[in-house]
Amino acid sequence: LLTALTMLDHVTPDTQFTVGSELSLVGANSSTAKLKKGYVLNTEQILDALLIPSGNDAAYVIAAHVGRKLAKDPQIADSDAVNLFLEKMNDKAKTLGAVDSNFTCPDGYPNKTQYTTAADMLKISVAAAQNETIRQTTSKTFVSYTMPDGTVLKYTNTNQLIVPSNGNYYEGLFGLKTGTTNAAGQCLIAGC
């Protein structure tokens, strides 16, 4: 959610994101949106790839794109671009009052230097819930995009509480994000 909020501070709806070598930074066994080098996605598509299937690959595409824009250098190294984005991410967290967090990757993939608290995640979630673009994205139950190479990317929301045909459906609930790590277990941020 913080990656999406940070990104939206630096792009427009017609921004084009080209998937590149930053894919090499995605952690092993990550949840991905199955993006391939050379794909070009608009803002809505990259947000869908980030938030619906928890696409860690999309997080790095976003971070590299925005980092290069911040550096005003399209050739800056992937890791340097991502680090510039992470600076903005941590600044954004602080402006939201999330002062007990340190984000060292754009995708939430566990590492020893990244941490947050439930209170900070609540502050970030409230900001995300107030962002109409994020609310629309995280309320989608399914999307499908056909890439120029013919590959069809299909993303199904894993939040069973927003899918009307699911037995766990909860009327009036919207998004926001599911997530799972070995340390945290299964997590859900939602609102109604």
Description:
This protein is an alpha+beta fold and 192 residues long. Helices cover 36% and strands 16% of the residues. It has six helices and six strands, in the order H-E-E-H-H-H-H-H-E-E-E-E. The strands form three sheets. Strands 1-2 form a two-stranded antiparallel ribbon. It has a two-stranded antiparallel ribbon with strand order 3-4. Helix 2 (43-51) packs across helix 3, helix 2 crosses helix 6 and helix 3 (56-71) crosses helix 4. The radius of gyration is 16 Å and the shape is globular. The mean pLDDT is 95.
Task: Please bin the fraction of helical residues.
Answer: 25-40%
Total number of beta strands: 6
Give the termini separation.
17 Å
Using only C-alpha atoms, the radius of gyration works out to 16 Å
**Strand numbers in spatial order across the main sheet:** 1-2
Please count the helical segments: 6
Secondary-structure element sequence?
A: HEEHHHHHEEEE
Kindly estimate the percentage of residues that lie in beta strands according to DSSP: 15-25%
Shape: globular
What is the residue-averaged pLDDT? 95
Major sheet attributes: 2 strands, antiparallel
Low-confidence stretches: none
